[in-house]
Amino acid sequence: MEKSERRPIPLAVSLAGLRLIGAGAVLGLALAVPAAPAQADPPRPPATTQDQPDEAPEG
Fold first, then answer.
1. DSSP 1-59
2. Where is the stretch described as Disordered (predicted)?
3. How does DSSP classify residue 57?
4. How confident is the model at residue 59 (pLDDT cuts 50, 70, 90)?
5. CA–CA gap between residue 27 and residue 42 (Å, rounded)
6. pLDDT tens column, 18-46
7. Which of 38, 22, 39 is nearest to 30 (CA)?
């Protein structure tokens, strides 16, 4: 069996490849995580009824 010839890879090419792999991993995680549901409006206080007295008496 013959040994495969190993050629040195320049550092710039190696770093570019690692960046590409990292970007793909980040994109994959972003797509895999379910989106958060939209925030609903905060709950409103209950509407006043006629059984409750007015806050400020009329003058």
1. -PPPPP-PPPHHHHHHHHHHHHHHHHHHHHHHSPPPPPPPPPPPPPPP-TTSPPSS---
2. 35-59
3. -
4. low
5. 32
6. 999 999 999 998 888 777 666 667 777 77
7. 22
